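Notebook, student rotation project (T.W.).
Task set for the rotation: take a protein with a known small-molecule partner, predict the structure of the complex, and write up what can be learned from the model alone. Partner molecule chosen: nicotinamide-adenine-dinucleotide. Sequence and SMILES entered below by T.W., checked by me.
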Amino acid sequence: MRIAIVGGGYVGLVSGACLAAHGHEIVIVESDPNKVKLINQGNCPIFEAGLPELLTKTVGKSLKATDRIEDAIAVSEASFIAVGTPFDGDSIDLTQIEQAARDIGGALKNSSSYHLVVVKSTVVPGTTDNTVATLLEQTSGKKLGVDFGLGMNPEFLKEGTAVEDFMTPDRIVLGGNDTKAQDKLAQIYDCFANTDKVRVNNTTAEMIKYASNSLLATLISFSNEIGNLCKALPDTDVTSVLAGVCLDKRLSPIMPSGERITPEITSYLAAGCGFGGSCFPKDVNALRKFSAQHGVGSTVLDAVIDTNKKQPEQFVQLLNESMPDLTGKTVAILGLAFKPGTDDTRESPAISVIQQLLNTNAKLVVYDPIVDSLPPEIASSEISMAKNLKDATSQADAVLLVTAWEEFHGLADVLNAQNKQPLVVDGRRMLNPADFDQYRGIGLGPRTQNDKPDGNVASAA
Ligand SMILES: NC(=O)c1ccc[n+]([C@@H]2O[C@H](COP(=O)([O-])OP(=O)(O)OC[C@H]3O[C@@H](n4cnc5c(N)ncnc54)[C@H](O)[C@@H]3O)[C@@H](O)[C@H]2O)c1
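Predicted structure of the complex:
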């Protein structure tokens, strides 16, 4: 099918490239001319495993980009809205959604055939059927359900494994204002014949996405709360506690063969320095505000956010307890991306960690394997960027591990090769405490007598 995708960011570009690889003809409509240029040259504007290869395969054949929405809509049977939906500090900011709806509506004015508009962005329940439907009707002069249909198809890909997630989906949610819209949306996903599909109305589709993200965020904050208690208990280690919890067969089922399977959800039962990124914080916050607007309490979600906000502070406290005066000390911060496998630093816990260390008179050195510049929130001359792990740690009195990049498993070897034994503070519990002279980790209680940390290494969510 010929499809326009409005918004060529993490979701729009990955969805577009994957659908193009499945035989659809995709036009990405992107307002950033630099991204349009890069995509049309076959160059990938983001760091995402497998995406450059997919662009090489599809650009110029079944995938192209443009900033001219009229041209794209004129040749398309369906369009997806995949623009950003940030949290503005109070509630969800729908500016980009509204603009995209107006642009599509304007482009549909002269259309004579049925067109399906699908909201893929994460939007609070009711947005598709109210805000988007109204704007489309106003700007196109057409009638919903007659001239055009409206679908809601939330996206569940994860940055870092986005292509794999899109290509092997666990579910496809097909929201629609009526059966005709659902049928047309289902047709687009016919190429995923073996995937479970959920046919619902648009509001339910919107709610499924928020409930999914809120559940995962809740597991992380739950783990962090347990970890903070373990930290206060002598000889207790959150990684052992949660490893024991995850052996519950309702979390990791034992098959009739006796083999145990470890579902990915257990990786969210891990303590760390908090969740970040462009989804969990903003989505949980948007749902809290939405609940309040409906006179419904959100006690659990309030606590999820509260715990998460404090988690980078819990992490820096480990440093302060072991090194109370940072004057003249060099502190290496490992990781800027909000999680491994992506160059995305939106709401990264690293930002909060670094903000706490500014004005402590410590020399800050930051290293991330992929991100090579500081996010705007912390752009500061006080901070230097190292080119590799060795340079980052060569002068370090303390090393703070914030992002669970695979490369950081080699920290002990890098330090040993330099004959260095700085204080190591592990915000992701991915290191073996026994490898370091001075080790502090999230959720690790004080050691008494000869008790050694258990050495369970958490799976990093
Ligand atoms: N990033 C994720 O992992 C992820 C996963 C699932 C769902 N989502 C949701 O998907 C949506 C998009 O997220 P993202 O991370 O891809 O955002 P993003 O900021 O990376 O991309 C949005 C893109 O849309 C473009 N844009 C904005 N308004 C436009 C317009 N009117 N016309 C053309 N282009 C326009 C922007 O320039 C940008 O390139 C959000 O609602 C997000 O919550 C994101």
